[in-house]
Every structure is written in C-alpha cells, then in structure tokens.
Amino acid sequence: MYQLLLVDDEEATLQGLASLNWSQLDINHVYCAFSAREALSYLSTEPIDVVVTDIRMPGKSGIDLLNEMVTGEVNPKCILLSGHSDFAYAQAAIKADAVDYLLKPVRDEELLETVKRALQKRKEELNDRYIHDRSIEAIKSHIDYIGQSIFKPWLIGEKDRKHMRAELEAYDIPSSDDVRAVWLSVQLAEHGPMFEQLLSIVTAHLSEKAVIIRHQDTPDSLSMMLYPLYKEDIPFFQSIVQERIISLKKEIKKMIHHSVHIQLGESVLFWRDAQSAFQTKAVVPLKQDEKQEQLANRVKDYVESRLFEQPNLQEVANFLYMNPAYISKRFKEETGETFTDYTHRLRMKKAVTLLADTNYKVGRISKELGYKDSSYFIRVFKREFNQTPHEFRNR
C-alpha cells in the first residue's frame, strides 16, 4: 500500500483532488497540505510515496518544495500542477526531476494515470534499493575478506587491475576511474593486547559505508584505507566517516576503557594513487581548516553570479561535484538558514536595491531576478514587504 501527499493553497482544489478514487491505485493514506512548509512537515514524519503539488503558492513554491525533497537515496516521486502554460515552469520541473508537469484543470483520469506511473517508478527505485541493500549486507558479512583478499593484493601489486575491477563488479562495488578512498588511523592512548577488540569495534562502525583495507596493525593501533561502498562524492563520504568517528571514539572508550586518537587522512584517487600510497604509507593528514572551508561561501558565490537563472540546489551540487543533501545540510549548519530561504532573501534584497537605485521598470527587475512572470514577482514582493514594488518605490 502507498501514501500520497496533495499540496495546494486552494481548499476547494485540494478537496477535489482528495475525493478521487485513490484506492484503485493501492493508496491507503492521502494527506493534504495547504503550503510547502506544511508538506515538508508531513514528509519529515510520514513515508510518502508520491507528492502532487501546485507550483504557485504563497511562500515557497512547488518547485522549492521539490528541491528541498531531494535529500535521500530514494525520494518520493513528484507531480507538478500549474494553472499557466509556461515553458519556464516546464523547464524548472524537468531540472527538479519531477515525474510530470500537468496543466490545470487536470482531468481525473489523466491525474490518476500519472500517479500510477509515478508509483511504478517509485516501486522500481525501492526494489533497486532493496537489492542494493541486500548486496551491502552480503558485503558487510564478508567485509574483512573483501578488504584483505580482494583489495589488498591489488594494492601491493599482486593482482592486475582488470581482475580487480571484475571482482568489484561482482560485488556491485563502485569501480569508476574517479572513485576516491581515504586514510584512517586509530591509536589507543595506552598500550595493551587489544587488537581483536579494536578491530571489531572499528569494523562495526564503518563497514556499513566502506570496505576496510588494513594497512598496518599493532596491538593498540590500526592504519587503514577506506573505500566507499556507494558512488558518492568524496566530501559527502568524508562527512559520513567523520560522523562515525564520533560514535567510534565513545564506543572504544566504553568497551576498552582507553581514550583514543583517530585521524582521518586526505583522500586519494584510488586507481591512480592508491597503490603507491599504500606501499609507501604516504598518509597525508587532512587539514581541518581546509575540510571545514565555508562551503556556504562557495554556494553563495555560485548563486549570486547566476541569480537571474534561479539556480536550484541540484545545479549547485552539479557545479561543486557534491551531493545535494550534503550541501543542504552544511549550508544550514554554516548559515542558520535553508538554501531556499537564502535564495528568496537574496532576490528580495536585490529587488529592493534595484527599485531604490535604478529607474528600471518592474517587468525588467523581475527578469533580472529570474522571475519569468512579473505579476508573480509582484505578489511575492508584496507578501514579503506588505506593499507592491510600485508602492515601495513611490513611498
């Protein structure tokens, strides 16, 4: 059974959509939201499969909602509705990865058929995720074997690359030329014969996300290379490892009763540099000031230079070669506001500047800010400042 979320600021429209025979599509729960914010609240607590949302709503739009939904490995499918045949909206829908873009008033049969297709895509993605998770479980149960018997022989020059890649493909492990691995060292503050315990704790905390390739072992320390199990950008992978390190330290102290020093090293381009690094142990500590460089500043530079294009989170992620979920999380941590709220605030700030310092007509200003429809810009501006652009300029 599936769950559906309907989003529209007009109560009559929402009631009409909710009254359709959704049970014929095996949908047993239909949730209704009057705004994008209310929709995001449902999405944070309910396992929604498909979202049907209007594009133009007070506050955040349907496009904004869809961009903020892109946070997980398998996201709900989204269908966008609009009362205006606007090519710009269709383009935005495509960029935001919507299943479809329908014009109001939409026929019941058309909407039901579109939701049916969305559910099929959702089912296929969930099935792929299930198969992948089962593969990961199989890998985790043999994680030490894979690290020591498949990866290590290649790293020390005892296996050719073609044979190595064929084995990775058999385990559904990423093997592209751009994949990167990271170094990790674990050192207990006090000496003692605790290797097996230490290895067991480290494996339990890291094997869900990485193959552990042990490099050097002593009774109280481990040096290893971590190879990602998922096809992820390296900053996102490093952020996951950093989070695991926090819990790893607590667990080691709890189980072994010793404090521990854990150092995450710099990433290496695996197929190009890993062999020489592994054989020479050229572990370069990761500089914290570099890793924690203000990602928000890079995001802001990109957005501000392309404000008239209305860049979304996925476009920023593509430009920075990063995961959109990672960017969204880091941006909120560094600035205290969401990416969507930031871009909205930036446009409104720019609008005020243009109204005060230029003689541009409102239509030109709306285009400068990336709004295809000047009337929509006027409504957004009035919601923000409780006056129209003309009233603001003439005050």
Describe the protein's architecture and organization.
There is one protein chain. The protein is an alpha/beta fold and about 400 residues long. It has 3 domains: about 1-135, Rossmann fold; about 140-290, Alpha-Beta Plaits; about 295-395, Arc Repressor Mutant, subunit A. The protein is built from 18 helices and 9 strands. The chain is globular, with a radius of gyration of 26 Å.
In total, the number of domains comes to 3
Mean pLDDT, all residues = 81
The secondary structure category is alpha/beta
The description of the largest β-sheet is:
5 strands, parallel
Biggest sheet, spatial arrangement of strands = 2-1-3-4-5
Give the overall silhouette: globular
* Number of helical segments with 4 or more residues: 18
Q: Unreliable segments (pLDDT under 50, ≥5 consecutive)?
A: 282-293
**Using only CA atoms, what is the Rg?**
26 Å
Number of strands: 9
Helix content: 40-55%
Query: Architecture of the largest domain in CATH?
Result: 2-Layer Sandwich
CATH overall fold name of the largest domain: Alpha-Beta Plaits
Name the CATH class of the largest domain: Alpha Beta
| Helix-strand topology string | EHEHEHEHEHHHEHEEHEHHHHHHHHH
- Our measurement of the CA-to-CA distance between the termini, rounded to an integer number of angstroms, reads 56 Å
The percent range for strand residues is 15-25%
